């Protein structure tokens, strides 16, 4: 089933995106104090995605014009990497849970803690940034503009 336009989404979709963005940043301060870098990455990736989706539906409501091409580039790059960033940060959360469940010793040395933080930052932010660079290399054209939704990535998901 295909839809000719998504105008039925307009008043509700941006409102729910903004509410979801606000709800996704509520737990970030407590996880920052606890040092859960991967959970912070998940919260920031979902916050950014919801804010960008709300902005796109407001700016591109009812038209196909391209009033802000730089914003279109930023938006499509973020959307192309957001799912990968969420998956990568979730992978690190699962690794941390596995490490806690198989705990063979009670204490970690400061070097091991530093190494763990490095991997958390790498999985939460480093791997997605690498993905953005690779996406820029393989994209066929800048982005597609979908009426009422705004710019969308041009990479075809084949897997």
Q: Any overview of this molecule?
A:
The chain is built from 5 helices and 2 strands; from the N terminus they run H-H-H-H-H-E-E. It is mainly alpha-helical and 159 residues long. Strands 1-2 form a two-stranded antiparallel sheet. A hairpin with a 3-residue loop joins strand 1 (144-146) and strand 2. Helix 1 packs antiparallel against helix 3 (37-59), helix 3 runs antiparallel to helix 4 and helix 3 (37-59) runs parallel beside helix 5 (110-138). The longest helix has 33 residues, at 69-101. The protein is elongated and about 60 Å long. The two termini are 22 Å apart. 22% of the residues are buried. The model has no long low-confidence stretch (mean pLDDT 86).
Question: Which structural traits does this protein have?
Answer:
159 residues, mainly alpha, 67% helix
